[in-house]
């Protein structure tokens, strides 16, 4: 198989995984991937698309209107002259060093490693999850367990390499039994996240799951309500979508997730 075909095959497999729209080949065959039977393009039966508007190819429709504006949250920043070491941590590494010895909440008690987050200083996209899981706690790296593998595929499907994205969580230590972080734990940890975002100044933030969305937007609204709007955190667009761990449990949410991440992609210059 040529490189081109291998790439196309991989791309279509990613689309299928995400429940993406059908892709129409130039000979009008649909290699429809929305209901994912696992067959690859050349193995699938020929289906004619009834939707002429789609017949010229790719699934991305840059002319679709963007969703409406949503919540704008602008928490006060750190005082530049404050003695708090967090506000003097100019770099992501300095921040990670502070996290490594942090005992500001009870989650420090059960952790093996802190998981501050990782990615390049010039990342245009910041992905925010909830908190480290088991594998993350063992390795000190975000999103490396099963949910992380799915995240890597989601990013690849919108043409983003994982190592070009900054990936982190609301809380930097693993909650016991992967329970949802409690309100006071989030309150104790969130200055780290806000500071990371201030240092990175990304073009877009992707909030994955309710905890990330509600924390970044300071709201109790449900994930379903928050999806499909362009919110802002300190002026930076925030797109809300399902958490990859939830997608592993409920594949019905893959299609909406694919729609959400495409919006995030369109907002990246
Ligand atoms: N789930 C999260 O929210 N974050 C991780 O890093 C891994 C799983
Ligand atoms: Fe500190 Fe955050 Fe870990 Fe709590 S979860 S101990 S606030 S780094």
* Major sheet attributes: 6 strands, mixed
Bound molecules: uracil, iron/sulfur cluster
What would the principal axes of the Cα set say about the shape?
A: globular
**Category by helix and strand content:** alpha/beta
Order of helix and strand elements from N to C terminus? HEHHEHHEHEHHEEHH
Spatial extent as radius of gyration: 20 Å
Distance between the termini: 33 Å
Descriptive report:
The chain has 269 residues and is an alpha/beta fold. The protein contains ten helices and six strands. The chain has helices at residues 3-17, 85-88, 92-100, 134-139, 146-157, 183-200, 210-217, 223-226, 244-249, 254-267; strands at residues 69-73, 125-129, 166-169, 204-208, 230-233, 236-241. Strands 1-5-6-4-2-3 form a six-stranded mixed sheet, sandwiched between helices. Helix 1 (3-17) packs across helix 5. It binds uracil and iron/sulfur cluster. Iron/sulfur cluster binds next to helix 6.
């Amino acid at each position: 198989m040529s490189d081109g075909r291998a790439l196309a095959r991989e791309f279509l497999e990613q689309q299928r995984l995400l429940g993406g729209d059908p892709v129409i080949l130039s000979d009008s065959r649909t290699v429809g991937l929305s209901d994912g039977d696992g067959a690859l393009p050349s193995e699938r039966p020929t289906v004619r698309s009834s939707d002429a508007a789609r017949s010229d190819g790719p699934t991305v429709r840059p002319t679709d209107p963007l969703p409406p504006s949503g919540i704008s949250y602008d928490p006060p920043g750190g005082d530049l002259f404050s003695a708090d070491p967090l506000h003097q941590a100019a770099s992501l590494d300095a921040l990670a060093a502070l996290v490594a010895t942090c005992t500001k909440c009870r989650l420090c008690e059960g952790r093996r490693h802190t998981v501050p987050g990782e990615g390049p200083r010039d990342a245009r996209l910041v992905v925010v999850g909830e908190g480290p899981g088991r594998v993350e706690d063992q390795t000190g790296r975000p999103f490396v367990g099963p949910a992380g593998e799915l995240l890597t595929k989601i990013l690849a499907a919108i043409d983003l390499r994982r190592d070009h994205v900054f990936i982190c969580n609301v809380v930097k230590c693993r909650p016991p039994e992967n329970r949802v972080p409690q309100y006071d734990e989030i309150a104790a940890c969130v200055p780290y996240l806000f500071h990371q975002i201030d240092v990175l100044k990304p073009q877009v933030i992707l909030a994955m799951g309710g905890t990330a969305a509600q924390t970044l937007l300071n709201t109790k609204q449900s994930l379903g309500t928050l999806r499909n709007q362009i919110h802002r955190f300190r002026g930076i667009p925030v797109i809300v979508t399902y958490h990859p761990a939830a997608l592993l449990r409920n594949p019905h949410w893959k299609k909406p997730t694919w729609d959400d991440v495409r919006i995030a992609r369109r907002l990246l210059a």
